[in-house]
């Protein structure tokens, strides 16, 4: 019985290693850091919601789904690198998500009432101001991100009021 369990564990570990190697091109320090931040963000988000009485299973499920999507996008970036014989896209995507997850951990800590150094509070403000998507000149106006369309309509309203 003990040998069977040991064999199952070895087969599972080998399969997981093969999937990780295929999906991410191996296990790097950056992917390890991203995994740690994703888990810490999920835990601090859960704790902050619980402390504020805002814990909802649907929101938690959506959050977990987004965390899985992060690694799907990292996988896509890996295959773009492989197709172009580069090693740029995956690292760029991983750095983006590391910064995003770190920001979220900082925000969650603030929601839990953890004292925040001014430098971190300022960093959160800077990252939040840069979160809005930029207008993509290649896309037609209807295909622009919603935030861009809303900003454009607000600008058009202001211009319309100024002309009156």
From TrEMBL:
What's its membrane topology?
Multi-pass membrane protein
Keyword tRNA-binding annotated:
no
Query: The organism's lineage?
Result: Bacteria, Bacillati, Bacillota, Bacilli, Bacillales
The residues that cross the membrane are: 7-24, 30-49, 70-98
Coiled-coil blocks: none
Q: Which domain of life is it from?
A: Bacteria
Region of interest: Disordered? 136-164
Pfam families, sorted? Phage_holin_4_1
Q: Which family does it belong to?
A: Belongs to the bacteriophage holin family. Cp-1 holin subfamily.
Mind telling me what this protein is named?
Holin family protein
Keyword tags: Membrane, Transmembrane, Transmembrane helix
The cellular location(s) given in this protein's UniProt record come to:
Membrane
């Amino acid at each position: 019985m003990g040998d069977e369990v040991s064999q199952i564990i070895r087969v599972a570990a080998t399969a997981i290693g093969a999937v990780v190697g295929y999906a991410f091109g191996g296990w790097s320090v950056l992917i390890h850091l991203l995994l740690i931040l994703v888990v810490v963000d999920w835990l601090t988000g859960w704790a902050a919601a619980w402390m504020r009485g805002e814990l909802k299973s649907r929101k938690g499920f959506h959050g977990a789904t987004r965390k899985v999507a992060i690694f799907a996008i990292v996988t896509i970036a890996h295959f773009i690198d492989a197709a172009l014989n580069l090693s740029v896209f995956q690292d760029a995507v991983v750095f983006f998500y590391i910064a995003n997850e770190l920001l979220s951990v900082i925000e969650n800590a603030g929601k839990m009432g953890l004292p925040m150094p001014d430098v971190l509070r300022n960093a959160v403000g800077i990252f939040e101001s840069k979160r809005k998507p930029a207008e993509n000149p290649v896309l037609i106006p209807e295909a622009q991100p919603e935030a861009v369309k809303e900003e454009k309509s607000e600008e058009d309203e202001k211009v319309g009021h100024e002309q009156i």
